[in-house]
Amino acid sequence: MTRASTDGLEALTIGSLAEALGMSKAGVVGPFGSRAALQAAVLAEAAEMFTAAVVAPGEKAEPGLPRLRAVIDLWCGYLDGGPFPNGCFVTAASCELDGRPGELRGLLLDVVTRWRAFLREQVVVAQGAGDIAASLDADDLVTTLTGIAMAANQEIQLLGDATAGARARRLMLAALAA
């Protein structure tokens, strides 16, 4: 996972993993079968880690704005101190794969689409509860929240800005209050 975070999913191969683990290629290919399956497994694990860190605990909050706020807090905390050396794995993979056709891009598209659908659902529930203005477009809010998160990831990783996570949280909450 760490190697895929630092070098990118495309750089992850059976050979590079075998070398990093001090194993033979045959010892690594067995559990995965192919480079594509290895890359898919790493992406799936990264998505599961995000879900376990952000979505699952966020769902414990009361539906509506309390849940959306909890998810935003968890999301910004994940950006600020997540498990990967190059920040949000999905954001990095999105930048790497967005213009490359193929199965791995398709898997990433599914991960991102499910996350955006989850966010949209939370916005719609909050609107239905009267917590967020119904006049705000749910898809616009999802795009705004996602854009803020991507900018924060860049500010944290590239610019070394220790205040980016807190700023992202403020901006996301401000977007909901607009």
Automatic annotation (TrEMBL):
Pfam families recorded for this chain? TetR_C_13
Protein name as catalogued: AcrR family transcriptional regulator
Which UniProt key words apply to this protein?
Answer: Transcription, Transcription regulation
Annotated ranges, domain Tetracyclin repressor-like C-terminal: 64-171
SUPFAM superfamilies (alphabetical): Homeodomain-like (SSF46689), Tetracyclin repressor-like, C-terminal domain (SSF48498)
The record's listing under InterPro entries reads: Homeodomain-like_sf, Tet_transcr_reg_TetR-rel_C_sf, TetR_C
